[in-house]
Amino acid sequence: MFCYKEVKEWHNQGGLETQSESVDWTFDRSYVRTKLENGLLRVWRDVQQKVRPYILALDMSHFKYDDFIRVLDIVNRLLSS
Q1: pLDDT digits (tens, 9 = 90+) for 26-36
Q2: pLDDT less than 50: residues of the chain
Q3: End-to-end C-alpha distance for the chain, whole angstroms
Q4: Measured between alpha carbons, how far is 52 from 65 in angstroms, rounded to an integer?
Q5: DSSP readout, 37-66?
């Protein structure tokens, strides 16, 4: 996810600037930005689909308090990414 955000940021900052800003180049930049936005959502949905069954299958009643807090921290980090 970090690399994905770095690529997105690079494109938002302009990427490789060219001498002539043609209509095609402007269209290409907006197209790439749109694809990167949609791709991030797809990656996030994929992560959710793979992690969700594991979290739902956990029997948290046997977890110690510290372990439970650790699981919540990991889920929180996934949500904030």
Answers
A1: 667 777 777 77
A2: 19
A3: 7
A4: 21
A5: HHHHHHHHHHHHHHHHHHHHH--GGGS-HH
